[in-house]
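Bench log, entry 3. Co-assembly request; chain sequences pasted below exactly as received.
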Amino acid sequence: MTEAPSRWDEKSIVVVPGLPGNLTSPDDDRPIYPASTLAFVKVLRNEGYTVLVATPEDVREVSHHASDEWLPLANFGLQVLAGGGGNVLAAVLMHFFGALPRRKIVAHIKWNVQSPDGSVHEFMFDGDGDTAIEVARTFEHSLGYGDDAN
Amino acid sequence: MPTDSGVSRLIEVQRLLAEYRADPNLATNADLIALRRGARAAIDRLDDQPEFDEAHDTLDQVGQHIRQARPELCLFTEAGDDYTQDCPVALGHIRLGLSVGLEIQESHCSICEGDVWECPHIPGKSYDGQSAARVVTKAKIFEASVVSRPDFPDARFMSQPVSRARVEAALGGPLPANTKPLCDRCLTPCSGISDSPLATL
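Structure output for the full assembly:
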């Protein structure tokens, strides 16, 4: 796996340890990732995104085997979104959901997203996958992406 | 995957049910027990899908046919002084299942058997007709939960308790000696699906 330089990289999507929502986890302090992390990283790299994992030598994944999809926590750097027309987050979700076998997806998402001015904003969503895509697009536009200047 | 196999199972159950209805002597008890299991397997794969209502209706029709054609297949099972309900038709109306939380400790790619992080195969994607998957060979379970949509569609309740008192209350008096209670659930209109185990009898 590619070494992650830090938890923030303006040119990358950095997957960080943790689980979205109130999921149970093993009773210790080691970092954990949802089991969707592998597919998330490989699908997005295959689509040309630079995706790093914060602790590449210790990717401890937990699965909950319900039909919901708990996406990995991730930090989206400014340059990942710049020039994307305000549709990068939505495209990431479409690529990831498109790799799943289910027709209907309940998604749990918690991402940090850097806006054009460098500030960090949290995108959280729990619910239907199609709605997640629309909400992600709206969120990204609300940060200023998709304007002519970006 | 779950959705497609649910539809194909539903079609097969409907085909067999039509045959057995046309000629009730065609099916053995084992055939009818398999039909009942098949109807449940179908609905258990069709949660939230357009075919769910059809699968529910088929499950009810299977239950009604078996109750009318072979009532001996609808007896409660004795469990000490009480009983259990093991019927896939009744249990199929409980839209709950089990989910385990586990830590993946060892796994490999189903295509190349290599390191899933290093190999080029993406889980869920097809390669020469073969779907790539992560094969988990070692895991540690840290919890189990009751959920409405289990990832494994067959991870469901296989039995539920029925108290003797409840049976006798339904009968309006004590059960005669050496008799076993017969479930009449499928002789009455379906009261709908439930997310509570106790609401289905």
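Chain A has a mean pLDDT of 88. Helices of chain A lie at 37-46, 78-81, 88-98, 129-142.
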